[in-house]
Design a protein that fits this description.
By secondary structure, this protein is of the alpha/beta class. The protein has helices at about 5-30, 35-45, 50-55, 65-75, 90-105, 150-160, 175-190, 195-205; strands at about 110-115, 125-130, 135-140, 165-170, 215. The protein folds into two domains: about 5-75, 434 Repressor (Amino-terminal Domain); about 90-215, Trna Endonuclease, Chain: A, domain 1, CATH 3.40.1350. Helix 2 (about 35-45) crosses helix 3.
């Protein structure tokens, strides 16, 4: 089974790769314009060794402002954007939702937490993966979902790529969540056809929930029998 990379490690690696790539571009631009390290350093009030370290991606403490200044001096314009990537860290509220949900599962259902996707290089992971005799579902926990289309798109993409029979979105019973679910089910409900309480009842009996579902956890938990099997 693949080992899940920590978000901070993934961010560190990506940051180093970007510093190296931008440094190489800056060096190429400097040379193409006939500038030497001393010229660039002087214009920035820095030493030529400082500029050299930036060009080689060796100065990890450089600020965005400094990198933008370096690019401008050699005739480049720095552009930075953030794109959807791997999974974010999970907060305490999400962990509580997952543990509550797990308490409803029949003890025959196997539970694994934070399961990486099977494809090499895919940074995504399930918050949890539950498995019966011949079925498996990805579990995602949300405590304050907001964007209906983005949430649905993310879940359905994960369901298609994650090697599962379906996805279960597990949410707490709060006013905010109920307002979100009203719009969510009205917009993309056809893609999540199984009623959440039905899915919860089937899982409590150790059965396949039958498809994608949004599970609204009851305010008061009635435990069906916790899953005792450890991650495998």
């Amino acid at each position: 089974m693949a080992i899940r990379e920590r978000p901070i490690d993934r961010g560190t690696l990506r940051g180093r790769q970007l510093l190296s790539a931008i440094g190489l571009e800056a060096r190429s631009a400097r040379r193409n314009r006939g500038l030497d390290l001393r010229d660039v350093g002087s214009s920035m009030g820095r030493s030529k060794s400082w500029v050299s370290r930036l060009e080689r991606g060796l100065s990890e403490t450089i600020t965005v402002l400094e990198m933008s200044q370096l690019c401008a001096v050699v005739g480049l314009e720095l552009s930075i954007r953030a794109f959807p990537g791997g999974e974010p860290i999970r907060d305490a509220a999400q962990t509580t939702v997952l543990e509550r949900f797990r308490g409803y599962l029949h003890r025959s259902i196997r539970w694994s937490g934070e399961v990486p996707f099977p494809s090499v290089g895919d940074q995504r992971a399930w918050d949890a993966l539950i498995r019966g005799a011949d079925w498996r579902y990805g579990v995602e926990a949300e405590t304050r979902p907001n964007d209906v289309q983005a949430t649905a798109r993310r879940l359905l993409l994960k369901a298609g790529d994650g090697g599962v029979d379906g996805v279960l979105l597990v949410v707490p019973d709060t006013r905010h969540v109920r307002m979100f679910l009203k719009e969510f089910l009205a917009t993309v409900g056809a893609s999540f056809p199984i009623d959440g309480q039905r899915a919860l009842g089937l899982l409590g009996a150790g059965l396949n929930p039958g498809g994608n579902s949004v599970v609204l956890l009851p305010r008061q938990q009635s435990v069906a029998g916790p899953a005792t099997n450890s991650s495998s």
